[in-house]
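Sequence only, no structure available. Ideas?
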Amino acid sequence: IHRDLKGGNILLTDKVSSGINAEYGRYPFINIQLILSTPFLPPSLRMESQFRKTIIVGDVHGCLDEFLLLLKKCNYKRELDQLVLVGDLVGKGKYGYDVVKWARENNAKCVLGNHDEVLLDVRNGERPLGGLSDTHRRDYSNLNEEDFVWLENLPYYLELGPVTSQQTETLYDKNDSDLILAKATPFNPNANIIVVHAALKPGVPLSEQSKRMMTRARNITSKGDLVEESVPDSVPWVTKWTDEHSHVVFGHDAVRGLQINPYSTGLDTGCCYGGLLSALVLPDWEIVSIRAKEMYSKPNKPGTTFNVPA
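Reply:
I predicted one. Tokens follow.
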């Protein structure tokens, strides 16, 4: 059992737990949590985030070089910063298996993406290896037992709580030609940060959300049902998410690209398609992006621009 101070809370949990609250994958460990809320703590124990900053990275899809460069541009320090990935580490790019290994070995937090889940389906005999793309087969063949156990225990969502810090704002080189900067526009900068790969259904508790929709949905119908693709009478799910107490950070939607909304931020900017790899850096609410080195996979919809920041 691990004792930790996080955001003014005392947290007792098993060592594989991520964040204050998480919905664990298909093979959950025992997860014991006891949170003592801030009002009951003496002033000496009330503290802001234990991290200097939190970096949430969009869909990497095997783009290892861009991933490591983005972390460098964000001045990431493992011992000081919290790193969170929105899922889809594998497939489409060249080095998905190395992205998984790096994330595991560096204790990055991550939620499960649909492409990550594909490899788990093969491992559990739910789909044939021969039916996968070349990049997925390569990733599957190069993952070891530790990698698969790590993937199997990824949560479907993470609650990070309010991400605050007394650090001074990170300074970026405005003349750096590799960097593209934008600002997120949160309605509530002190909202509970929720990380999910694809979508959440408004009005439904996190523990009752559909695991399939959390990894695959993009739209919501007029009846309030999440759907995986655009259908008549449906709109982007984020247009219906208006919870003032939360801010959802997600990926999975490269066609719409960067999505900056008051209650959510979408970070899939299509790096594997030759677009960008993007990260949300908190508590600055800065969106930091770098260009892909090449097009690793052709987008399903030609002409996609990924709504990249100017």
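The helical segments are 64-73, 96-105, 114-123, 134-142, 145-152, 211-216.
Hope that gets you unstuck.
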